C-alpha cells in the first residue's frame, strides 16, 4: 500500500507539472499573438509589453525576440532592436532575416560597416536573398560606393523583379549621383508595387525638390507624414535640403519642416 501511495503522489505531481507547462505554453502563445496583433495596429508599446510577458514565460523563444526587435526598430529604439536580433541569432545562427534586420538597425544608427557585415552574412547564408542585396546596396550608397551599390540593387531586382525595396534603393543611388529623372522613375516603380510603404514618398519628395517641382514635393511629404513622422526622414530632409532654393517662392521647404513639427 505505501508503494501505491508513493506512485500516486509521483503521478499526481507529474500531472500537475505537465498541466502547468501546458498552461504556460498557452499563455505564452497568447501573449505573442496579442503582441503581433497590437504591432499590426501600430500599438508598439502594447506589443512590446506583450512580448515581454511572453519572454518571461520562455526566455528562449526566438519568435518573441524577433517580433519585439521589430517593434523596437519601428520605435527607432535601435539599440534594443539590435540586442533582440542578436539574441535570435544566438538561438538560430542560420537565420537570414535576422541578419538583415540587425543590419538595417546598424544602418539607422550610422554604423555602415557593421550593417554591411550583417548583410554579407545574410548573403553568405542565402545567396539569393533579394532583401539582403537591396539593403546592402542602400548602405553602399550611403558610403558613396555607387558602383557596388548599383551592382547590389541590380542583383536584387534580378532575383526578385517585384521587390519594391530594391527599386527604392536603386532610386536612392541615382538620387545621390544627381540623376533625378531616373531616381523618380525608380521611386515610382517602388510606390506602384507597394504604396503602403510611405517611406518611398519621402525619397521621391527629395528628388522632386531637386527638380524644383514643389507641388509634387509637398504632396509626397504630406502623404508620408500623415502616415508617420519619421525622424530619419526629417534628418535626411535637412541634410539634403540644407537651405531654401531661390525658386522656392512659397517656401515649401519651411512648410515641410513645420509638418514634421506639428
Question: Briefly, what is this?
Answer:
With 262 residues, the protein is mainly α. It contains 14 helices and no strands.
Write up what this structure looks like.
With 262 residues, the protein is mainly alpha-helical. The chain has a domain at 198-262. It contains 14 helices and no strands. It has helices spanning 2-40, 44-57, 62-74, 78-91, 96-108, 112-125, 130-143, 146-159, 164-177, 180-193, 199-210, 214-227, 231-240, 252-261. The radius of gyration is 24 Å and the shape is globular. The chain starts with a helix and ends with a helix.
Shape: globular
Order of helices and strands: HHHHHHHHHHHHHH
Sheet-strand content, in percent, reads: under 5%
Mean pLDDT: 88
Distance between the termini: 79 Å
Q: Counting H and I runs of at least 4 residues, what is the number of helices? A: 14
Rg measurement, Å = 24 Å
Say how many strands there are: 0
Structural class: mainly alpha
The largest pleated sheet is described as: none
Low-confidence stretches: 12-28
Question: What's the topology here?
Answer:
Elements: H1 2-40, H2 44-57, H3 62-74, H4 78-91, H5 96-108, H6 112-125, H7 130-143, H8 146-159, H9 164-177, H10 180-193, H11 199-210, H12 214-227, H13 231-240, H14 252-261
Helix pairs in contact: 1-2, 1-3, 2-3, 3-4, 4-5, 5-6, 5-7, 6-7, 7-8, 7-9, 8-9, 9-10, 9-11, 10-11, 11-12, 12-14
Amino acid at each position: 500500500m505505501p508503494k501505491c501511495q508513493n506512485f500516486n503522489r509521483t503521478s499526481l505531481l507529474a500531472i500537475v507539472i505537465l498541466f502547468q507547462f501546458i498552461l504556460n505554453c498557452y499563455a505564452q502563445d497568447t501573449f505573442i499573438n496579442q503582441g503581433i496583433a497590437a504591432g499590426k495596429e501600430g500599438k508598439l508599446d502594447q506589443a512590446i509589453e506583450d512580448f515581454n510577458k511572453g519572454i518571461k514565460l520562455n526566455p528562449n523563444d526566438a519568435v518573441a525576440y524577433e517580433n519585439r526587435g521589430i517593434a523596437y526598430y519601428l520605435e527607432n529604439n535601435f539599440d534594443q532592436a539590435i540586442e533582440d536580433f542578436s539574441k535570435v541569432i544566438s538561438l538560430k545562427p542560420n537565420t537570414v532575416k535576422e541578419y538583415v534586420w540587425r543590419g538595417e538597425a546598424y544602418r539607422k544608427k550610422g554604423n555602415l560597416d557593421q550593417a554591411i557585415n550583417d548583410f554579407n552574412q545574410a548573403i553568405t547564408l542565402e545567396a539569393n536573398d533579394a532583401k539582403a542585396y537591396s539593403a546592402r546596396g542602400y548602405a553602399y550608397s550611403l558610403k558613396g560606393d555607387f558602383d557596388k551599390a548599383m551592382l547590389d540593387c541590380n542583383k536584387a531586382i534580378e532575383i526578385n523583379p517585384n521587390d519594391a525595396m530594391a527599386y527604392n534603393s536603386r532610386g536612392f543611388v541615382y538620387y545621390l549621383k544627381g540623376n533625378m529623372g531616373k531616381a523618380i522613375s525608380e521611386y515610382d516603380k517602388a510606390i506602384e508595387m507597394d504604396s503602403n510603404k510611405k517611406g518611398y514618398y519621402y525619397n521621391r519628395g527629395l528628388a522632386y525638390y531637386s527638380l524644383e517641382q514643389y507641388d509634387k514635393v509637398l504632396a509626397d511629404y504630406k502623404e508620408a507624414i500623415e502616415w508617420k513622422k519619421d525622424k530619419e526622414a526629417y534628418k535626411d530632409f535637412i541634410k539634403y535640403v540644407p537651405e531654401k532654393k531661390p525658386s522656392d517662392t512659397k517656401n515649401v521647404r519651411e512648410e515641410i519642416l513645420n509638418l514634421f513639427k506639428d
